[in-house]
Amino acid sequence: MKRYAGLLGLSFLWIAKSAQANPACVVCTVAVGASLSVARRLGISDCVVGLWLGAFLTLLGYWSIWWFDKKKWYFWGRDAILILLSLGLVMGVYIRDLDYTPQPIAYVLYLDPFLASVLGGSLLYLLSQKFYGFLKEKNGGHAHFPFEKVALPLLFLMVASGCLTWSI
Known about the structure:
This protein is mainly alpha-helical. It is 73% helix and 4% strand. It contains six helices and two strands. The protein has helices spanning 2-18, 26-41, 46-71, 78-95, 113-138, 148-167, and strands at residues 103-105, 109-111. Helix 3 packs antiparallel against helix 4 and helix 3 (46-71) packs across helix 5. The termini are far apart.
């Protein structure tokens, strides 16, 4: 048992040595991805699940762009293609489980509530990252507290989830 613990410790040190600083946490990405299916099984509203899915898709698009940058794969429209591809692939999984029921938004735009919440979640994640950048700039280039970049999107999404749950 001690040998396995030592091996685990050495492997952790090897991974930590080669780790790079990134604005998005891999553990958080996996946790959000796994929690979506659990939330649907618990009976949480599809709009709330869509909100978190939108943030997850935005993060997935970010990781794809980061990976393409690392491989030095550049071509015209790459970022938009990667984001639309991640949106299309994951939405395809959820669409087969949902009924498509477009509803009017501001009497002009007809949109499915689940798709609207996915787009809202993406927008919330982007706004939280812009807000983090603003706060960091005002604080001399430093975060106010550890993991502020993780806490802000979670706060934005939790408040929006509460508002959606309350209104439903």
